[in-house]
Amino acid sequence: MLARSSVLPRGGVLAAAFLALAAGLLVPADPVRAARGTGGEAPSVAADAAELEEIKKAGVQEIITRAVAALGGRDGGRVAWERVSTVDFRYRREARQSYAEQKVVAAHRYRREADGVLSLEVGILEGEGKGSLTTIAADQAWIEVDGARQALPPDQARRHLAQYAPEKLFHIPLEMGPSQGRVADGEILDALRIVGLETVNARKAVVLAAEEDGVERLRMLLDTQDWRLLEATFESAAGRITYRFGDYRAVAPSLVLPFHWEFWRNDIRLDLIEIQDLQVALAPPRVAPAPGTGGR
Q1: Alpha-carbon distance 105 to 94, whole Å?
Q2: Alpha-carbon distance 214 to 190, whole Å?
Q3: What distances in angstroms separate CA 173 from CA 14, 77, 139, 194, 249, one per listed residue?
């Protein structure tokens, strides 16, 4: 199964917002979708209007602050992940590489051991393809398929396994956590506006959008109950890209991640990932040396 690195934003949704604004990429507003929501129900107009007014009074800065806190605070997200020493990551993935292609369903297990050994085991559950086990140990790498073992260039193997690592799949939520200067203190915050409420998978969400000349460049949907990111949409060279997230869980202190992940292109879902298990070990946080001790 191939990863879609070409459409993943390198800096997460927040960097994607910056790139979209800077490059003038367009994500056209969809007034029909905004009016009816994605859940298909007709919400109470009066209740929603009152709730939206309260959210607008709180302001974008406060909403972003709540979103950061909901994903582990400023010590969470990418900051917490950088302390991860070992990973045992199991997930089920339904994917197709194009709209017409038959889907492939596979079970994945990605492991990073304390001694630095990396491995990815893929078992095909439905569709064409063969299961495999790819391993990287020190300066050697190999893949095993149908009992046959073949050596691989270690750099090539590392690039391949990186597409399936948690930090790749969780890139956007990890950046949302301590999103720091890119949103909480930076230019993107000035561009974001609270534009309405929508329903996503029966969850009410506030819509934050970055606009220029009346056209949306970025759309983010945050759950109004827990303020976690439900959806992010932006434009890429491959078309209109949407990521949807759900079933957030705390996997370690200050590390809250979605166990449900979807990838859509031009309103067609191409990828669905359901996390089955994620076990991580975190190294202790670094403590700054006391003044005058010279770090001793």
Answers
A1: 4
A2: 15
A3: 10, 7, 32, 20, 12
Of the candidates 101, 77, 120, which has an alpha carbon nearest to the alpha carbon of residue 250?
77
| Exposed/middle/buried for residue 210 (C-beta within 10 Å: 0-12, 13-18, 19+) | buried
Whether the Cβ atoms of residue 52 and residue 196 lie closer than 8 Å to each other: yes
CA gap 153, 141 in Å, rounded? 6
The token pair at 16 is 């994607």
Residues 6+ apart with CB under 8 A from 197: 37, 43, 48, 51, 52, 204, 205, 206, 207, 224
Q: Do the Cβ atoms of 147 and 138 come closer than 8 Å?
A: no
State which amino acid sits at residue 97.
Answer: Q
The whole model's pTM is what?
0.77
Residue 290's pLDDT band (cuts 50, 70, 90): low
- Please tell me the least confidently modeled range out of 9-13, 90-94, 188-192, 283-287: 9-13
Tokens coding 15: 């960097």
Residue 257, beta-bridge partner list: 249
